[in-house]
Amino acid sequence: METKETKGLVLYNKDFREEDKLVKIFTESDGKRMFFVKRARKSRVTPVIQPLTMAQFILKINESGLSYIEDYKEVEWFKNINADIFKLAYASYIVALADSVLLDAIEDPSLFSFLTKTLTLINQGLDYEVLTNIFEIQLLDRFGVSLNFNDCHFCHRKNLAFDFSHRFSGLLCPDHYDKDPHRSHLNPNIPYLINKFQTIQFDELKTISINDSLKKELRLFIDSLYDDYVGIKLKSKSFIDDLGKWGNIMKQD
Questions:
Q1: Nearest to residue 218, comparing CAs of 153, 159, 131?
Q2: What PANTHER family has UniProt attached to this entry (predicted)?
């Protein structure tokens, strides 16, 4: 068992026996690990084992079983996210999405940085719906899904009014719409934005301005990509879908 100090983000915790808890933490140095916390209610680490808590952890890493949290410092609780049910729902979904693509005990500092930067931007007030879309699109490669939103599948021309074909897993320009009678019939702004989302760096992102109608179209199209090419069903995503049905009532209140 090795003692290490590393940044970590709590993904979730669950009860174990009567008083103990198991805590899953995505660590920057050692990937996703499960930690055992004895008598969790009275433990000195209780303040930092809630989901969406980030800290500098001192950990005892066990390669063949459960690991342990020795101490912590420099805690960040994402207070603005936790104070807003909409931000919290979307943040919980992207955390669950990252969890689903991560293998246990495999370090992935680039995904750790991407995930924590996304949460930081949501906490700072940037559009959580669009940030979630960007996260989803850039995560597709990790699910083994590589889609070209840059040029036509047939003639490779660029900068046209493209549509997407699930049949060909790529774009169709107006000259090749007839290749797929069941093409998506997208607003041409959708493939344009997806192409931007695939490569955008968050350091370049200062503001986000996409109207509500276009955001709804983006949501539906990205859902179709995940349904067809990824196929995972997350409870946190179902909650977001339900927010779309009754959440507007809360916003009006």
A1: 131
A2: DNA REPAIR PROTEIN RECO (PTHR33991)
Which tokens go with 202? 């968050």
What is the reported pTM? 0.93
Residue 126 three-state SS: coil
Q: Which long-range contacts (CB under 8 A, 24 or more apart) does 48-51 make?
A: 48/10, 48/72, 48/75, 49/10, 49/13, 49/21, 49/23, 50/10, 50/13, 50/77, 51/10, 51/11, 51/12, 51/13, 51/92, 51/95
Residue 144 one-letter amino acid: G
pLDDT tens, residue by residue, 1-28 = 899 999 999 999 999 988 999 999 999 9
pLDDT for 251: 53
Sign of torsion over alpha carbons 64, 34, 97, 129: negative
Closest C-alpha among 41, 123, 32, 37 to residue 72: 37
Burial of 119 by CB count in 10 Å (0-12 exposed, 13-18 middle, 19+ buried)? buried
Task: Strand 148-152: give its sheet, edge to edge.
Answer: 148-152, 170-172, 163-165
Output the CA–CA distances (angstroms, integers) from residue 164 to 19, 160, 214, in the order listed: 52, 12, 16
Which residue has tokens 């946190």?
Answer: 236
- Rounded to whole angstroms, what are the CA distances from 33 to 21, 30, 86? 14, 8, 28
